[in-house]
Amino acid sequence: MKKIATGNKAVAEAVKQANPGVVAAYPITPQTEIVEQIAEFVSGGLMPSRYIAVESEHSAMAACIGASITGVRTFTATSSHGLLYMHEMTNWAAGARLPIVMANVNRSLGPGWNIWAEHTDALQERDTGWLQVYVSTVQEAYDAILMAFRIAENNNVLLPVMVNLDGFLLSHIMQPVDTVELGDFIPAIHLPHAIDPKHPAGYGTLTGPDQQFKFRWDIERSMRDSVKVIEETEKDFAKRFNRKYGFTEDYLCEDADVIVIALGTLGKEAEVAVDILRKEGIKAGSMRIRWLRPFPKLNLKGKDVVVIDRDYSFGFGGIVASEIKAKTGISLYSVIAGIGGQEVTYDDIAGFVRTRRIGEELWFGVNAHV
To answer: Are 2-241 and 251-369 the same fold in CATH?
Structure first.
């Protein structure tokens, strides 16, 4: 069914269709609309979930953990400082191998207090064991939530999934969205290690040095196994619903001399910049990274690469640029832009490409090269 919706409402609609047994919620701008819409679905009898209004984001994740550990499908949503408040529990969710799905509306961290888009919140969670996908349209936000439940609950994965969408730039923007009839796309959840009172067992007990590393390796093994599960899920989604996704979204990359890489809406904006540059005779392409965990294989050999980071690791560099350099060994032009919702247009992105200085870093607006 075709409709017009914000990114937040599209996420809520997808959650309704996935029909989790438990939704735990605490409001935070600019995510609040997601859990408000879900609350309306539940109170109106359109969604038979147990809706738990908690006193904090830490409690929201704890409630999801408690429900998920019994084998129930769970969902929550948060943003920015809410996600940071969950940090102890996000580690626990991944370590306990619980397939929780969470929407995170990317927002800057304070101080100063800023409610606009930035990716530093989610990127601070990249080492917890959560799968992470970054979307660029309302349609993709809806689709990614549906696929996230199927991926997380696959018994070869059993890791939580975070779906990231840019605050206001996507969460509150209205775009067309085509909802689907799910059918059997998301199978019934079966958690093999669910708590069962009929078969008592210890859970989360003290683990010694002779065992702990094995649990950590098992998370990594499952993260690696998730690659195939993601590919199979996206392939089936394309077959059923005629919308195709991948680990990256590549635009005119095959013959490009220079490739722009970014997450979220900046990655989509880069496609317009590429069109402008192509008309000028500059063979540019864009590569929007969708899945940051597991990190995708990137074919960048022989290309100039411009990475736009809406984030920063202080004293080190742009996080996405640093990860690409670590994985590929290439030298690139790192641009720090869009922090705290700073406006970055396709003309600005085209300018980054024209004036690129491979091996250096630029802070857009400050005009500081390093």
So the answer is: yes
CATH class of this structure's domain 251-369: alpha beta
Question: Looking at domain 2-241, does it have CATH number 3.30.70.141?
Answer: no
Domain layout of the chain by residue ranges: 2-241, 251-369
Choose among 119, 83, 114: nearest CA to 310: 119
pTM of the predicted model as reported, rounded to 2 decimal places:
0.97
356 residue type, one letter:
R
Q: Which segments of the chain have a pLDDT < 50?
A: none
Q: What pLDDT does residue 202 have? A: 79
CA distances from 250 to 261, 291, 297, 331, 336 (A): 9, 13, 13, 20, 21
Q: What is the DSSP string of 267-335?
A: HHHHHHHHHHHHHTT--EEEEEE-EEESPPP---TT-EEEEEES--BTTTB-HHHHHHHHHH----EEE
| Range 43-47 contact pairs with CB under 8 angstroms and sequence separation of 24 or more | 46/16, 47/16, 47/19
Q: Give the pLDDT score at 293.
A: 98
